[in-house]
Design brief:
The protein is mainly β. 0% of the residues lie in helices and 64% in strands.
Length: 99
C-alpha cells in the first residue's frame, strides 16, 4: 500500500505479521437454567461474558525490523461498549536498536 506525503512522492506500508496466545478472564458469570421440552430435565446455559480481562502475549514481525518483537498486552472491558487496551514491548527493537 502506498500514499503520497509532503516529504516524499510515495511511501510504502511495511508488511506486518502478528501471532500470539491469549487468556480471557471473566469479570462476571451469568447462567440461565431452563427445562428441556423433551425430558423435562434442567439444563444450565452459560451466557458469554460481556465484562472481561484479556491478557495476551504476541510475537510481532515487521518487514524492515532486525528481530522479532514480543509484546505483552491487556484488554479490559468494564462495560459492553468500552474497552481499555495497554501493553508494552518485552523484547524487540527501538529505532533499529535491539532492546
Amino acid at each position: 500500500m502506498t500514499w503520497k506525503t509532503p516529504s516524499a512522492i510515495t511511501d510504502y506500508l511495511p508488511l506486518t505479521m502478528r501471532t500470539g496466545i491469549a487468556v480471557e478472564l471473566r469479570l462476571h458469570n451469568e447462567t440461565v437454567e431452563q427445562r428441556t421440552s423433551i425430558i423435562g430435565e434442567i439444563d444450565t446455559v452459560y451466557i458469554p461474558a460481556t465484562k472481561y480481562l484479556l491478557i495476551s502475549f504476541d510475537g510481532v514481525s515487521r518487514e524492515n525490523d532486525i528481530s522479532l518483537s514480543f509484546v505483552l498486552v491487556a484488554d479490559l472491558v468494564p462495560k459492553e461498549l468500552l474497552a481499555i487496551r495497554g501493553g508494552f514491548n518485552v523484547y524487540g527493537e527501538d529505532n533499529e536498536e535491539p532492546i
